[in-house]
Amino acid sequence: DTAVSQTPKYLVTQMGNDKSIKCEQNLGHDTMYWYKQDSKKFLKIMFSYNNKELIINETVPNRFSPKSPDKAHLNLHINSLELGDSAVYFCASSHRNPRTLSHTGELFFGEGSRLTVL
Amino acid sequence: GQQVMQIPQYQHVQEGEDFTTYCNSSTTLSNIQWYKQRPGGHPVFLIQLVKSGEVKKQKRLTFQFGEAKKNSSLHITATQTTDVGTYFCARPSGKSTFGDGTTLTVKP
Fold it and tell me: Which residue of B has its CA nearest to A40?
């Protein structure tokens, strides 16, 4: 059983298109994240949801819209794709301490979705 | 913002040599985590350090947390080709900030 699964693994699309990436976790975690990893391997947080509530929203273009239908799922929709959106997008999950806002224990990452915009 | 700085960005070693990556923060960290990402893979949790001056070992890997809880290091003794990948430190609080990573290549 895959703990954090995201689909699709690979996505090749033209500039201007709209695409979605889906993520599901079966670990019972209350917090899910989207990270973007660029060609230099820098890992930057984009969004975080805790129990379906958006708690972290980094400086990300509003073409990116996350949605969490329930605490086991977090999807990412991207409108009007641009060349600079090409990257690997990782979903992750963890438990989060409601008092300190730290994630407790480890982050579990999905295998990543490699987006290539042509 | 609160960031963790990680050096070096790249390290090329001969198999059998040692390797160290360093992580530094301008603010005191409550704890710090380390992750490894194999080429083409996803980050995988290695360890979490919580106490000032803490040292933990995992086989050939030694993790240290500084006395002031502002820096940490990961040391690999006698590297093997299976050690290749990118090693990240991460500050779990708030925005779960990751260091920029150190990419290790090992020449057989």
Answer: B100
